[in-house]
Amino acid sequence: MQNFTFRNPTEILFGKGMIAELANRVPRDVPVLLLYGGGSIKRNGVYDQVKAALKAHPRVVEFGGIEPNPLHETCLQALAVVRAQKVGFVLAVGGGSVLDAAKYIAAAACFSGSDPWEILTSGGAAITGALPVGTVLTLPATGSESNGNAVISRQATQEKLAFGSPLAFPVFSVLDPETTYSLPAKQVRNGLVDAFVHVMEQYMTYPAAAPLQDRFAEGVIHTLVEVGPRTLAAPRDYDARASFMWAATLALNTLIGCGVPQDWATHMIGHELTAFYGLDHAESLAVVMPGLWTHQLERKQAKLRQFGQRLWGVESPAETIARTEAFWRSLGMPTRLSEYGVNAEEAATRVRKRFAERGAVFGEHGDLTPALVAEILRLRA
Amino acid sequence: MQNFTFRNPTEILFGKGMIAELANRVPRDVPVLLLYGGGSIKRNGVYDQVKAALKAHPRVVEFGGIEPNPLHETCLQALAVVRAQKVGFVLAVGGGSVLDAAKYIAAAACFSGSDPWEILTSGGAAITGALPVGTVLTLPATGSESNGNAVISRQATQEKLAFGSPLAFPVFSVLDPETTYSLPAKQVRNGLVDAFVHVMEQYMTYPAAAPLQDRFAEGVIHTLVEVGPRTLAAPRDYDARASFMWAATLALNTLIGCGVPQDWATHMIGHELTAFYGLDHAESLAVVMPGLWTHQLERKQAKLRQFGQRLWGVESPAETIARTEAFWRSLGMPTRLSEYGVNAEEAATRVRKRFAERGAVFGEHGDLTPALVAEILRLRA
What's the sign of the alpha-carbon dihedral B119, B124, B128, B134? Predict the structure, then answer.
């Protein structure tokens, strides 16, 4: 096992009715920014629950319109509101995009440099402080509700970058499975695959004498496989939705990655597919990962074999890859570039060029070069 | 799944060499109490490593001699030192007993009532504050390094009581598997069984639509079963010791118990066997739990069956109990009262009387009366 440090200070408030706890958790002595996305929370009743819980709070400033793949440009508008209103607490209500935007805005509000985009280009190292952030999660997927990570896109440059910082963990997150009942099936499917891939990025590398981490990772996948189809078929099955929600949190709250090698190449490549072609985040991951595994089959074979045996009851690494892809497809998730009308050769060329410009290499061995990334994408026509 | 709140703010510093991090984690602007037990840390080099890490700290006050099943009376002596020296930080170096004592001393130092024992009789509700506590764990077993719980004994009254409080979590804990190399085999065996039983107290109840919690609990047990015999056979196998250590932490850092019913009757009964007959904590648990399961077989049968299938590959609840007890015995752990020269009938009578005096009932259904506890103990002759 590798050495590690682990700290996750976020308080989780889990279950039906927990939004009411905002009354006790959100401070009343500072102006609060209520941040949300495209307005679904106004249609599904979550907005009303939040406003009711905050009715004794003297100053709540609203900012709506955070988009999927939240834009730097939009966050700057919210930042102007934060500064003008002297906001002291950010309450994010929505999915991972809104939560990520809240983290970026909260860090940018305390940023002393001239351009907060440096928070992204530094990977988070430039963060020196952040306003406290609380969240009400309405879309299980990213794990953003219980980690210090965020992904922000910049429209002007077609960039999509990530940052992480111990200063960016939410102080609390409310997870009420009932808030997810009205999600479109596509978003549930995306969330299931996103959480699945988060686990795999921390698992599908090479054996590292970490049997407990392996068991926990496999436990999240067992759960997604068990409740995923159920929750798609019956959106108001509370228990299935609850286990999906908790599994997505545990998939990326930094616990299962303690002391083990991590990959994350699928995410890095997928971000480019989103930036260039507009695939949803989870869609991009489902396209890339089977190609990455196939390309790296030899070096990942021990973990592929273990995963196949324990999850799918199969022996060969190739069959493990096929079964995993088939599971995602059974959820309604496409896994090929052609299904999005994207030419694989063109995608390979564009992504290779961008990574070469950045001098980027990826993977648990740090040797997945832009040329190899292009080979992977060519496998996903 | 039941509603829950979860927050675990303890920073874990895991791996070889991590004791050096004390230099950066222990504050220098307040006197520090260095708390330890019977002196094993002076023989195995841990004390020297700690002192070296603290060499730039201007004021470190030492208090040794915390006993296994730490005594209220000894903690009061340490409390006098804390007050006299104006200690502002407690650094506990040792096993669960030292860590538990540190939590009690830290809470007692901020206690406004007349008798800090009230912290125990209130179960922790009387705690209004605590000095910050850091720990260096040298014996994987209790999970005290990453939770807000402690168990303290009172010599004068032969009582052994527990408390828990969100204010009692350590701010950090150093887990270096190498510090455990010199542990006697008996303490390793005890730690393995203690961690095993901690998981079972949060698992072996009734199905609660919490498949992820079940998988995590089973994952800890899978790991203990895999590395337990290895680490007993080869104490300096770093990886086995590391997984044992991390598994014992995850067994009781409050994560796997989120949203599920919990039992803890085995602990409550075991505490009395320790108080009356001096059994080690883990020894008492290994005696009680098979009896509890057998007595409650019908109501626990669904989880016994799941556990048997997933861990031991057996179908019947009775066989699950037998296989579990056999695993503990394979580690060298006795499981019968007669093996300690304790008369089961006498133990049943004494424990029943004490619980009756307290009006105590236990178990996940809250209906395990003193008379039923006596029946359980009679099964363990």
Answer: positive
Between CA B131 and CA B97 the distance in angstroms is: 18
Tell me the per-residue pLDDT of B252-296, one tens digit each, with 9 for 90 and over.
999 999 999 999 999 999 999 999 999 999 999 999 999 999 999
CATH of domain B185-378: 1.20.1090.10
Give residue limits of the domains in chain A. 11-178, 184-378
Under 8 Å between Cβ of A302 and A285: no
Percentage of residues in chain B having pLDDT higher than 90:
99
What is the ipTM for the molecules in this complex?
0.97
DSSP annotation of A146 reads G
pLDDT digits (tens, 9 = 90+) for B32-50: 999 999 989 999 999 999 9
Multiple choice CATH, B11-178, 3.40.50.2300, 3.40.50.300, 3.40.50.1970, 2.102.10.10? 3.40.50.1970
Is the Cβ of A246 closer than 8 Å to some Cβ of chain B? Answer: yes
Whole-angstrom distance, CA of residue A338 vs CA of residue A358: 27
Same fold, B11-178 and B185-378: no
Half-sphere exposure of A29 (CA within 13 A, CB side): 0
Residues B61-83 have pLDDT tens digits of 999 999 999 999 999 999 999 99
**List of chain A residues whose C-beta atoms are within 8 Å of the C-beta of residue B219:** 212, 215-216, 218-219
* Residue B360, SS3 per DSSP: coil
Q: Is B260 on the interface with A (CB under 8 A)?
A: no
Report the candidate in B274, B268, B103, B272 with the shortest Cα–Cα distance to residue B190: B274
CATH classification (class only), A184-378: mainly alpha
- pLDDT tens digits, A293-306: 999 999 999 999 99
- Phi, then psi, of A33 in degrees rounded to 5: -90, 120
Residue A204, CA distances (Å) to A208, A300, B155 in order: 11, 7, 52
> Closest approach of chain A CAs to the CA of B7, in angstroms?
4
Which residues on adjacent β-strands are paired with residue B154? Answer: B159
If pLDDT is split at 50, 70 and 90, which confidence band does B158 have?
A: confident
Interface list for B 173-232 with A (CB within 8 A) = 209-212, 215-216, 218-220, 222-223, 226-227
Read off the pLDDT of residues A134-193 as tens digits, 9 standing for 90 and up: 999 999 999 999 999 999 999 999 888 999 999 999 999 999 999 999 999 999 999 999
Of chain B, the end-to-end C-alpha distance in Å amounts to: 38
